Amino acid sequence: MQTGKVKFYNVSKGFGFIIADDTNQDIFVHQTGLVHEIRENDRVSFEVKDGKKGLNAINVERI
After folding, report:
1. Nearest 10 degrees: CA dihedral of 27, 43, 32, 19?
2. In whole angstroms, what is the distance from residue 42 CA to residue 40 CA?
3. Which residues on neighbouring strands pair with residue 55, listed in sequence order?
4. What architecture is domain 2-62?
5. What does pTM read for this prediction?
6. Which residues are paired to 3 by β-bridges?
7. What ranges do the domains of the chain cover?
8. What is the Cα–Cα distance from 52 to 61, expressed in whole angstroms?
9. What is the pLDDT of residue 41?
10. pLDDT in tens, 7-59
């Protein structure tokens, strides 16, 4: 599991980005990958998988 911080999350559209702690890389997150609801600046743990347009965060949980 990786950790990071929610950089941006649009609740009404159901997507956003997480900044990974280890790489400072922006990783896309969609509401279907959430375990808990998230908001901007939340600390989260997550797994990464390859998506059609790049990396996607899945199994995202607040920590």
Report:
1. -10
2. 6
3. 50
4. Beta Barrel (2.40)
5. 0.92
6. 45
7. 2-62
8. 23
9. 97
10. 999 999 999 999 999 999 999 999 999 999 999 999 999 999 998 889 999 99
